[in-house]
Amino acid sequence: MDKLIKTISASGYFRAYVLDSTQTVKEAQEKHQTLASSTVALGRTLIATQILAANQKGDSKITVKVIGDSSFGHVISVADTKGHVKGYIQNKGIDIKKTATGEVIVGPLMGNGHFVVITDYGIGKPYTSTTPLITGEIGEDFAYYLTESEQTPSAVGLNVLLDENDQVKVAGGFMLQVLPGAPEEAIARYEKRIQEMPAISSLLASKNHIEALLEAIYGEEAFKRLSEDTLAFQCDCSKERFQNALATLDKKELQAMKDEDHGAEIICQFCGTVYTFNEEELETIINDKS
Ligand SMILES: [Zn+2]
């Protein structure tokens, strides 16, 4: 079971989230049949969305859109405050690796563009905030968003490791934030530790990456675990929802679906579930419109 652990330094000036998102990204890969680079880009976006959603309360929803101008197209994911996230990548068939190391390439395939965060508090009028992509690697773009848009100095590390068959082996990451009033020398101490921290991929590769991440973030400093929440890839689509969407179409269009196509098939872009509507069901929708 995936989890997100919230912690705070004993001093109260630093807080960190650490995550295991392995099952979430595995599920996303299975549902969308993504190839290596697409898997990593989608996975990193899902992790960033999980972190942002963990910051929300009540019935809020967070949508992250990473909109690039290169091969991937856009990556979109949505998370609620109960640990559920769903998402997809526009071009799921990208698989480009460095010849020498086999490292999966992400940034250049995202290109230039924007990191868009939409917060929906469930009371209408969602709040949208946009920052430019810095490297297209998503982790850095996300850290820049947090620092610029939310005015909270933040360090982020997130990644997806694949096995030799390009299947998800481990996924996760961390977010460290400086809280108001933190003394300069303490900030310098944390900064130094983050700079000297082993690469996020090697931390994720360790046996218990949650503990490895916490140790890398806090070093010898005392901290408290505040909570542990479960995370999962879960889509909220349903036949009823798509039926309502069909009902918004023109009567003529619906009639054509019935008479010419003898039914309709809708695929949820977030999870790949296929919903079919036969002629009778279309007839009911048409009749309900009048
Ligand atoms: Zn769905």
UniProtKB/TrEMBL annotation:
Keyword Transcription part of the UniProt annotation: no
PTM comment: Under oxidizing conditions two disulfide bonds are formed involving the reactive cysteines. Under reducing conditions zinc is bound to the reactive cysteines and the protein is inactive.
Entry-linked SUPFAM superfamilies: Hsp33 domain, HSP33 redox switch-like
Zinc as UniProt keyword: yes
Keywords, ordered alphabetically: Chaperone, Cytoplasm, Disulfide bond, Redox-active center, Zinc
Family stated for the protein in its record: Belongs to the HSP33 family.
Record-level GO cellular component terms: cytoplasm
Protein purpose: Redox regulated molecular chaperone. Protects both thermally unfolding and oxidatively damaged proteins from irreversible aggregation. Plays an important role in the bacterial defense system toward oxidative stress.
Stored InterPro entries: Heat_shock_Hsp33 (IPR000397), Heat_shock_Hsp33_C (IPR016154), Heat_shock_Hsp33_N (IPR016153)
Major location category of this protein: cytoplasm
Any one Gene Ontology BP term: protein refolding
Cystine pairs: C235-C237, C268-C271
Location(s), subcellular: Cytoplasm
Any one GO molecular-function label of the UniProt entry: unfolded protein binding
NCBIfam families cross-referenced by the UniProt entry: PRK00114.1
Designated name of the protein: 33 kDa chaperonin
